Amino acid sequence: MNTVAFDLLVIGGGPAGSSAAATARQQGLRTLVVEKSAFPRFRIGESLLPAGNRILQATGAWPKVQAAGFMPKYGAEFHRSDGSGVKKVVFANGLRPGLESTFQVERARFDTVLLDHARELGAEVRLETMVKAVAPVAGGHRVTLAGPTGESTLTVPWVIDATGRETGLMSDQKRALDPPVLAKRMAIFSHFEGVLRAPGREAGNILIVRLDDGWVWLIPIDERRTSVGLVTTVEAFRAERQEPAAFFDRAVASSPKLRELLARATPTMAFHVTSDYSYFRRDLAQERLVLAGDAAGFFDPIFSSGVYLATSSGKLAADLVARAHAAGRGLSPAEQRGYTRAVKRHAGVFQKLIAAFYDEDAFDVFMCNVIPWDLSRGITSIVAGQAPTNWSLWWRYTLFLTVCRLQRYWPVVKRPEAAEAPLGTPAPG
Question: What is the span of the domain harbouring residue 303?
Fold first, then answer.
């Protein structure tokens, strides 16, 4: 048996784990990060949100992200499949200052930047190391690791599980799920060259093209390459009985807007497939074990919330652990419930927007370039990742959702046609 003096074990070296480890080290916890993969490694989820910048600033990683040469992102565009309507979201037009821009990132490099930062702060990082078992013991957990040099066992007071959507390390805590609120979806994706881009600052925008039973993302990750992915329901994919590449090509062919954007595009790698979107664990914290990032839950990538929620929950988990550790105790039931509520409350903001995106009537409201009652600027801030924590943002967000519901019975807004004014433009008068 190998006994190493660590206060915290972080399982997973992605954005949630790296942010948790960096935060823990800032507060003096002896921290071990174990990651089953070698770095750098490929991941999707390349589009950041401006609200996530403050998390990276708090962990100290932001200057390194700024220096990495990633593609600047100043907004987002939402398109109808037939090209009849476009919604341009310009982050600078929101209600909250400091949300003007962020980056599109190649995840292999971005995740490495964050993990290296945690290592530079003093976290020990072991790559190509799997956690085979986590067993509660008095005052912590006994953990069995398997790495390049064989198996080892250590006992730690605290564990943060940041293993993502993978189910290799399951437990009763992770098996207990909230009732599903969204349909099960999957993604078929690759990187492409030759995708049509707008000139100037808009070249870095993420583009979303809505289809009848899903949508397609187009994320510019450098001067040549664009991440392109189709999100659809598992049922729709199975019903067609096609290979992923053929299913993807069929979706592109069905959309005039996608045919325009991808007319000269060629994939630079084989198509990947991932599924299991839309789930949340019931309890995200126990006395000495906390779930962060996708290990806690994930709804849908439509509003690019994945990395942001991962980094924010990773930092929140580490802050919670550090306070309890300093007091020489485990997490109280109230603290466990509070963490679960906080993570789910913020994720729930995006979940309601996601539900609106998939609803035909609500989508008409969202696509309106100047939503009545000066709601547009608030929705711009929400799309940038800002939680509705103050009155000016909360009432706009709440009224927007109300208008979306009313649209089913009374046309508050007309179906938008092709438009030029960006979301966030103040209403006339």
Answer: 8-68+106-177+282-346
